[in-house]
Each structure stands twice: as C-alpha cells, then as structure tokens.
Specification:
15 helices; about 70% helix; HD; lipid metabolism; membrane
C-alpha cells in the first residue's frame, strides 16, 4: 500500500520541477495550501446538500408547482403480467415485430394489446411534469446561487482581470477561505448528484450522467490537489453562467409559459456560445497553454490538465453544434424552441464546471 501511495503521489508528476510535497507541507504561520485531505470534507457536506434538496423540493418547489397549477399526471398503469414484465426489464422496452409475434402466441394476446401494454408500462417510468419541475427548480436555485457567489468572489480577485496571476508564485499560492468554500461547495454538489441518481427516477441517460458526474468530481479534485484553484475557479464560473438559464427555461416550459421559455432559451444559447466558444478558448486556454508555459513551464500533470481542457473544448464545439442544429430545425418547422427531446440532447450541457 505504501508503494502504491508513493507511486500515485509522485512529486515529479504532480508538481513543477524543484518543488516537493515537503515544501508545501509546512507553510508560514497563517498560510494554508490545498491538501488532498481537504476533499474529504465534501462527502458529509454532499449528504447535507442532498438533505437540503429533499426539503427544498417538498416544502418550496412543490408548493410553487401547486401555485402554477402543475399537477402530477395520472398515467394509466399496465395490468400486471409476469411474462411481459420480464421482457420489459430484461430484454427490451420497445419490442420489435418478431418479439411481438412471439409474445402474442405465448400469451394468446392481440399484437396491438401487447403494444398498448408496453406503451403504458413505459409511461409508468416517466417522471411527471411536477417531479421534473421540482428537480429543475432545485438545480436552478443552486446554479444561480453558486454563480452569484463565484462572480462576487472572483470580481475581487486579481486573476479575474489578469490571468497571469494564476501562475505567479505557483504552486505557493495561498488557499483563501472564499476559494476553499467555492471549490468544496461545487464538489459537494456533484457528489450529491451522484447520490441522488440512485434514488431519482431512472432516465435513459443514467449511465451517461453517472460517468459525467464522476468525471467532473475527478477534474475538480485534480485541480484542487495540484493547487490550480485560481484557473479552476474561472472555469467553474464560466460554466455556471449558463446552467441556471437552461433550468429556468425548463421551469417556464413545465409551467407552460412558452414565450418566457423561448426568451430564456435564446438567452441561454447566446451565453453558452459566447462563454464556451469565445471566452473559454481565448481566455482560459490561452492562460493554461501559453501564459503558464512562459511563467512556470510544463510538467506531467500540466500536460494532463491541458489535455483535459482541450477535450472539454471539443465537447463545447459538439454541444454548440447540437444546440444550433436543434434550434435551426425548430425554426424551420415552425415549432417552439424548447419542444425537443431534452433528456437525450441537452442533459450533458448543465452539469459540470470542469467537464461539460
């Protein structure tokens, strides 16, 4: 175990040349540097956030849904059938003609009756509009609050206005309480999403979002351990700037305020394009690739960090293309902006300060 720990925490991977863990272990009085052990505090805080979410959805979001007359739809339940239930859970939720014919012979049911059963059974697993409204209201509230906190904190930070400050005296950069709370809160929120995925209604993108949350947690933790908090805080703030707008558009859609929904979606799209295709590459990548090279020089974890950010930029381009394509098709068909399959096309967009 000691050999594995020594291999994982290899100084030549994590730290610049001529810097050791011992140099960071004993800072001057009143000075604090990030430590891997700090990340453990995110786990109990994540449970607290999860508890707050349950309280918020039941005591705040649900009454708001009632005020807006968003009710839980009562879908017709499929009649119990062990054979069809086994096929539904183990084989397919949308059987093809071959499966339908075989089930028809086995049960002596009409094919249309079997199709109706599967349609009703699929509808049972779909979250109601009220459930989705409560979930989106919680996400909207958190994203808005953390964005306001982040922008207020960064507004007073030198590296907000001069990104070269992200690398001066690196890695001997003091961990302030504001930066610590910002990072740990973001990390705790995504840990809470990992917990809630197993209690929420299962969606088609369950596995994708699970991997997405796991990658986000890994990236936030990685930037914390090697003290790239300054540039990491800029990345988180950029991504948070559009997340709450997407959730706000969803809320308007669920409440059937279509004009407001369209407006919020347009604003979301504009901010998404500006932050992900302009600010991120020309501000963030410029400092992580070129300014940092000039000031501190490359080392192994530097290469990994920048590779991950470049992959992130590639995802930005792909998601921007999907947004533009879906919006274009909606305009050409004369449909409302927000009436698309959000779960399949949009779900990866809001989640992650360092990956999505």
């Amino acid at each position: 175990m000691a050999a594995l720990s020594a291999w994982f925490w290899n100084e030549r991977f994590w730290l610049p040349h001529n810097v050791t863990w011992a140099d960071l272990a004993d800072p001057a009085p009143g000075v604090e540097y990030p430590k891997a052990g700090h990340l453990l505090s995110a786990l109990p805080l994540a449970l607290g956030i999860f508890a707050v979410r349950i309280f918020f959805e039941r005591c705040i979001a649900s009454p708001c849904a009632s005020i807006l007359q968003i009710q839980t739809e009562l879908s017709r339940r499929a009649q119990p059938n062990a054979v069809l239930e086994k096929v539904f859970t183990s084989i397919t939720k949308s059987p093809d003609s071959r499966h339908l014919e075989g089930l028809s012979k086995q049960l002596d049911w009409d094919v249309r009756k079997i199709q109706r059963w599967f349609r009703q059974r699929r509808n049972q697993d779909k979250p109601s509009t009220r459930t989705k409204f409560c979930e989106s209201m919680w996400r909207f509230t958190f994203y808005l609050c953390i964005f306001i906190y982040g922008i207020r904190f960064l507004w007073q930070s030198l590296w907000m206005w001069d990104t070269r400050q992200c690398w001066y005296n690196y890695p001997y950069q003091v961990l302030t309480s504001g930066l610590y709370y910002y990072y740990i809160t973001e990390l705790s929120f995504y840990w809470s999403l990992m917990f809630s995925q197993f209690t929420d209604i299962k969606r088609k993108d369950f596995l994708i979002m699970f991997v997405h949350h796991l990658a986000t947690i890994s990236l936030i933790s990685f930037s914390y351990v090697n003290n790239m908090l300054r540039v990491g805080s800029l990345v988180m703030c950029i991504h948070d700037s559009s997340d709450f707008l997407l959730e706000a558009a969803k809320l308007a859609n669920y409440a059937k305020y279509q004009r407001l929904c369209d407006f919020l979606f347009v604003v979301f799209g504009m901010i998404f394009f500006v932050t992900r295709l302009v600010i991120f590459p020309f501000w963030i990548l410029n400092t992580t690739l070129f300014e940092s090279w000039e000031i501190i020089g490359p080392y192994p974890s530097w290469w990994l960090f920048n590779c991950l950010l470049l992959v992130l930029q590639l995802l930005h381009i792909i998601w921007s293309y999907l947004i533009a394509r879906i919006a274009f098709k909606a305009i050409m068909r004369g449909k409302n902006w927000f009436v698309f399959p959000l779960s399949s096309c949009w779900k990866p967009v809001p989640v992650s300060p360092l990956l999505s």
